[in-house]
Structure formats: C-alpha cells, structure tokens
Specification:
By secondary structure, the chain is an alpha/beta fold. Helix content is 46%, strand content 17%. It is globular, with a radius of gyration of 24 Å. The two termini are 45 Å apart. Bound molecules: sulfopyruvate (SPV) and magnesium ion. Sulfopyruvate binds next to helix 9.
Length: 431
C-alpha cells in the first residue's frame, strides 16, 4: 500500500483540511505531520492550540493512520524518515514566501521518486471566517499577554521590532522573509518612547503621557496579534506606576521595561552629553516591588533597564543593580550601551549569566549593530529589540519625497520610488 504525507499547523480543522485528507486517503495510507511549536512560530501564526492538543486533534481525525511530529519547517528530515510516495498540500504555497519550502519538497520528492499532489486551496466564506476567528483569538488580551513568556520558552532569541502606529504594527505582524530555504518573521513588537514621541513630533522626555502611549498601543493592538513590550521610560512615580501596570495587563501588553533614571528623562543615546540622573538601587527596587505587588496575572513581565553603562558608572554598578533588581522581583534585565563595540554588553551578559542562569536578558543593539542575534543568544541574551529602525528608515524617505516634489513642482519624478496604493492596501485586512 502507498503512503501519503501531509503536514498541518492548524488548531482547527476546516473544510480545506478535510479536502486534503480526502485526497491523501485516495493515495493510500495517510500520515499527518504536526508542525512543532518551535517550527510553526517562524512559518505561520502563533498556535491557538498547544502542540499536544494539535497532535491529539490530528490523531482523532477519521482516515488518519498515524501522526508524527515535524520539528522543522523544512520537510527534509521527515521525508527521509517516512519515505512517502506522495506529499499532499494546498496549492496556496505556490506563491509568496512559502514557495521556498515547496521548492525543497519538490526536489526531495524527485530524489526519492515520490510525487507532490496539490489540492486547490479552499477559500470560501466559512474558511475565511474560521481564519478571522483564530486571528481574533490571538489578539485577545489573555492570549496576547502570555505569548512573550511562551516565546521565551520556545525561541533561542525573541526578536522584537519597533512599532508606533497601526501601519508599523502591520509591518511587524506580516513581514515574512524566505532565506536559505527557511521562513523568518519578528516575534514581538517594541513600543518605543523615542519613536512614539517622534511620530508625534515631540521630544523623548516623557512629555507624551501614558494616556497617549496607551492610545498608540490600542491602535497597534487593533490590527495585530503579536505580543507587545512597552518602553515604559522611568515608570514615573511608584504611586502612578502601579495603576499603569494594571492597565497594561488588562489591555494584554506582555511586558513593560522601566529604566533606572529619575527626574527629567532624556533618551539614552545622548549618554553623558545631557544631564540625566540615575535612581538609587533602593529607590528603583521599591518601584519594581510596588509594580510586582500590583500585578495580578502570572503572564505580565516587569523588566528592569539598567543605565549604568550609558551613564558611565561602570560594570560593577551595572552588575550590582542587575542582582538587586532581580531580587526585587524584576522578570528580566535590559542592559543598554551606546558603544559601537559590543564588548561591554557581552562582558555584562557573561558575568550576569554566571550568577543567574534564568532571568531573561534584553538588549537593544542600535549602536552595537554589527553583532548578530545568534551571537547575542550565544552570550545568554533572550530578547533582541530593534528599537528605532522603522522610524529611521521612514523619515528620510518621506523627507526626500517632500523635497523632490517641491523641486519639480509635481509628483511624477518621485512616483517610481513610491509603493503603489494598491500594494499598500493589501497590507490592510478587510472584514
Ligand atoms: C527607545 O526606543 O525609546 C529606547 C531605546 O528607550 S533607546 O532609544 O536606545 O534609548
Ligand atoms: Mg525610550
């Protein structure tokens, strides 16, 4: 008897999946692969059902002979193991980034003497509705909030990109690249104080107040499902911070990062060129303790950001603070530097990790941008934040367009550099 293999990543079986199973059944024995969480989060949307639930679901389906865990988005290993006569898949992977996976399956099947059977993708109202429902579920506060902790358990390094509007949120949500035969995407979003303020034409000095920051978060949340890490500046007065922790938790924000500065906060990338005051270890620890007491869910994270290297107070001070803030209950440590050379960041990570193997480390490689995520992860970093790159790419592009229109007295000359409106609107979901 011949065998057919198909791989699922869904938590809900709909008509489309049943069509695939029917087609596979016609070929012979049916083996269903369940794409593991680890592989799925790069390939597709975050799962709405756990890996175990998905395995159970597929085993319960009529006409399925066996179920295996596919632990890689590439089919290479699983196909070598199963050696099926057929792979059955929806034809939707012929276009877009998923094509790279399809190409490799075709090559592998050719080498093994197998064949690919593609089933026309079922795109009817009921399938679209299920898809919208799943997306909506991921956007719900209780799902979104816990996702950062889940990702920390799944990824060698969680990658966050700056967002400050619905549109930048959509870019963080939907950008997928195919590279070296694999797909990749961002895991989370960083709502930067610098970029949120800049988008409003304001300086990054805690002038844009929390109500306005919450409005930005709400705009982003309306059109995305990925978890949000909020740049909470200094956290403000402890008496105010506790209320904000509750609001952020209720909204479904996953983490707030607060920095150990007080008084008039200036952006860290100014370093010692401007006057900035660091909070005392005791004062900042008390703010963390107050925030942790106010927190009601187990999901939310309060991450302490240490400014000792920025303010040139030395490595020992940074490490002493990291230990104290962790003891006060911080769920993670962000260490910041404005040096081009990552040496001080790596020294901090190494020394912190030798004393504490569990507390997540967060870094923002804006200045030390030559180091890769993999290298940072090898030094114990858990979250990498690309804190301002979308704003810094959009601003010069917009400025150049405005200047060129002024020079040419018309828009024809700039048009070829612009994205057609038709393409822009493909980003925006229609109901
Ligand atoms: C931000 O993005 O607002 C930050 C990171 O706080 S940095 O600008 O590097 O200080
Ligand atoms: Mg900031």
């Amino acid at each position: 008897m011949k065998t057919a293999y198909t791989c699922f990543c869904t938590g809900v079986i709909h008509e489309g999946h049943l069509n695939i199973l029917r087609e596979a059944r016609r070929c012979g024995k049916v083996i269903v692969g369940a794409l593991s969480d680890r592989a799925l989060i790069r390939y597709n949307r975050f799962p709405t059902a756990s890996q175990e639930e998905r395995l159970r679901l597929y085993r319960s389906l009529e006409g399925v002979d066996s179920v295996v865990l596919q632990d890689d988005m590439l089919y290479e290993d699983v196909l070598s193991l199963i050696r099926p006569d057929y792979v059955v898949h929806g034809d939707n992977w012929r276009t877009g980034p998923e094509r790279t996976i399809r190409d490799q399956v075709v090559k592998k099947l050719e080498a093994m003497g197998g064949a690919l059977i593609e089933v026309p993708y079922t795109n009817n109202e009921s399938v679209r509705k299920i898809d919208r429902q799943l997306r909506e579920k991921l956007a719900m506060p209780e799902y979104r909030r816990r996702r950062l902790r889940q990702l920390l358990g799944l990824c060698p390094v969680v990658k966050a990109i700056e967002t400050h509007s619905g549109l930048t949120g959509l870019i963080a949500e939907k950008t997928v690249v195919a590279q070296d035969g694999r797909l990749d995407q961002f895991d989370a979003m960083w709502v930067s104080s610098l970029c949120d303020s800049t988008a409003k034409g304001k300086p990054d000095i805690e002038l844009v107040d929390m109500s306005s920051r919450l409005r930005t978060i709400d705009d982003i949340m309306e059109v995305t499902t990925k978890p949000i890490i909020l740049d909470g500046d200094t956290g403000g007065l402890p008496e105010h911070f506790v209320y904000n922790v509750r609001t952020l938790e209720r909204m479904g924000v996953s983490a707030v990062i607060i920095e150990d500065k007080k008084g008039l906060k200036k952006n860290s990338l100014f370093g010692t060129e401007v006057e900035q005051t660091q909070d005392s270890i005791e004062g900042f620890s008390e703010k963390i303790r107050a925030g942790k007491r106010a927190q009601l869910t187990d999901d939310f994270m309060i991450i302490a950001r240490i400014e000792s290297l920025i303010l040139e107070r030395g490595m020992e001070d940074a490490l002493a603070r990291a230990a104290a803030f962790t003891k006060a209950g911080a769920d993670g440590i962000m260490i910041h530097s404005r040096k081009k050379d990552p040496a001080e960041i790596l020294e901090f990570c190494g020394r912190f990790r030798s004393a504490d193997s569990a507390t997540p480390i967060v870094v923002v490689p804006t200045s030390f941008n030559a180091i890769t995520e993999e290298e940072l992860a090898a030094h114990g970093v858990n979250i990498v934040i690309y804190a301002n790159q979308l704003t810094r790419s959009a601003f010069p592009a917009m400025q150049r367009t405005a200047e060129n229109i002024l020079r040419c007295h018309r828009a024809k000359e700039v048009d070829e550099r612009l994205m057609p409106i038709k393409e822009i609107i493909t980003l925006i979901d229609e109901l």
